[in-house]
Design brief:
The chain is α/β, with parallel strands linked by helices. The chain has 12 helices and 10 strands. The strands form 2 sheets. An 8-stranded parallel beta barrel has the order 3-4-5-6-7-8-9-10, surrounded by 6 helices. A two-stranded antiparallel ribbon has the order 1-2. Helix 2 crosses helix 3 and helix 3 packs across helix 4. The chain starts with a strand and ends in a 7-residue tail after the last helix. The mean pLDDT is 94.
């Protein structure tokens, strides 16, 4: 295991711990929170992340109607050596360029390092429209050719056929997928099967989202044992970082204190586990 990774096709180097921008852009995301009123704290968090060696930053226009992008843009203005990723919502498929240009204004950049389709579930007619001539995929490829995006990718909550169809186009550089201790559908090493394996066969840079399980694991533990007060944060981050097929693990952060705590976990390589061994069900007699 290492603390960094590289985009296979372009050689961009980045930290394996990524700063997820949804948490600081969305009001009441996973709990009561006023994103606009906390702008200064969020700016400080992004700047602390840079100081601590985080070089991967993820945002989207949908995170607070551009608020997350505005915060990222202000905090990272003039900062070099970072990978900045944003997205285009499927709703903007008719004019991907306009969506990106609006993002670039908020981000204060002439281009982004990674531009992704901000997806949920790709299937049926919506998938066909993405793949159609002149559709969203073709537009993303054109923007990459023009240099407005160094790399392009897609994000998905699923492990369905749409994910594989997008990979099979050969157009993409990255895949961002839900993966954590609860949602393990992209990675089953005993068969093996799952989209993470296929992504690597396609030479894609892989990004995990929902590293903390979006609070589902914690809710279950509290239901099973209401008296439990253990902090599972290190274990949840270490689980995802322990997967050799994950190039970057996104963690939502809002404060400098959260950044400090998460960076300490990321740098604690002794805390990694053997994920394949974890799946071993039998031992030799």
């Amino acid at each position: 295991m290492t603390l960094t990774s590289k985009f296979p096709r372009v050689g961009l180097a980045t930290s394996r711990l990524g700063f997820g921008g949804a948490a600081m852009g969305l009001t009441n995301y996973l709990g009561h929170y006023d994103a606009a009123a906390s702008r200064d704290v969020s700016l400080a968090a992004v700047r602390r992340a840079v100081e601590k060696g985080i070089t991967y930053f993820d945002t989207a226009p949908g995170y607070g109607k551009g608020l997350s992008e505005e915060i990222m843009g202000e905090a990272l203005e003039g900062v070099s050596g970072v990978v900045l990723a944003t997205k285009v919502p499927v709703a903007a498929a008719a004019d991907v360029r306009a969506s990106l240009e609006a993002s670039l204004r908020r981000l204060r950049r002439s281009h982004v390092d990674l531009l992704q389709i901000h997806g949920n579930s790709f299937d049926g007619e919506p998938l066909a429209q993405l793949l159609a001539k002149g559709g969203m995929v073709d537009q993303l490829v054109r923007l990459r050719e023009e240099g407005l995006a160094t790399t392009i990718g897609f994000t998905s909550e699923d492990n369905n056929r749409g994910v594989y169809a997008l990979m099979d186009t050969g157009a993409f550089d990255t895949m961002q997928i839900s993966y954590n201790v609860v949602l393990q559908h992209p990675y089953e090493p005993t068969r093996p099967f799952g989209s993470l394996f296929d992504a690597k066969r396609h030479g894609l840079f892989t990004i995990s989202m929902r590293t903390f399980t979006s609070g589902i694991f914690q809710k279950w533990i509290r239901l099973a044992n209401p008296a439990d007060r253990f902090d599972y944060t290190p274990a949840l981050i270490q689980f995802v970082l322990s997967n050799p097929l994950i190039d970057a693990a996104l963690v939502g952060m809002r404060t400098p204190e959260e950044v400090d705590a998460n960076v300490a976990i990321w740098r604690d390589e002794a805390g990694r586990i053997d994920v394949t061994d974890l799946w071993t069900r039998y031992v030799d007699a």
